[in-house]
Amino acid sequence: MSTEPDSQKPDRFRTLASKSAASDPQNARSTAEVELEQKLAYERDARKEDRFVFMIILVVIFNAWGLQNASTWTLPLLVGVLQLFALVVLARRFGVQEIQYWLNQFLAHMGPGSAKTERPAPQPKVEPKPAEPPSPHNGEDKQ
User: Taking 70 as the threshold, does the pLDDT of residue 35 lie above it?
Assistant: First the structure.
């Protein structure tokens, strides 16, 4: 006989205890609670996204109605940029992950150093030092 244990044999008491725990009404209740919490979180997320879509529809209707008689292109452009920033803030507040993903991708391409072909840094011009003019006392000792 060796002192090392052979392969682990299943403990019959633990297997029976785990089977009875699965059929335990308390465990079934907690499983149902977890499922309901997940469904509730999904519904809340869906409602937030619906509200965000409603806000976008309102912005489009405002743009069609309010900016149809704009005499210059600057007013619609300025209002559009302001609305874009407001919608991005609302998207983050409402938890719309798609908008956050698109925004992060856009900002990554617009950030510094994102140019496809970067120009090499210009090399500084090295100018030779001018030769020193001969001193008036070129070989003469000062007294």
Answer: yes
What's the predicted TM-score (pTM) here? 0.52
CA distance 18 to 61: 60
Nearby residues of 79 by Cβ (< 8 Å), 6 or more positions away: 63, 67
CA-to-CA separations, 141 to 35, 132, 134, in angstroms, rounded = 103, 19, 15
How many angstroms separate the CA atoms of 45 and 69, rounded?
Answer: 38
At what angle are helices 25-66 and 74-94 packed, to 10 degrees?
Answer: 170
Alpha-carbon span 70 to 66, nearest angstrom: 8
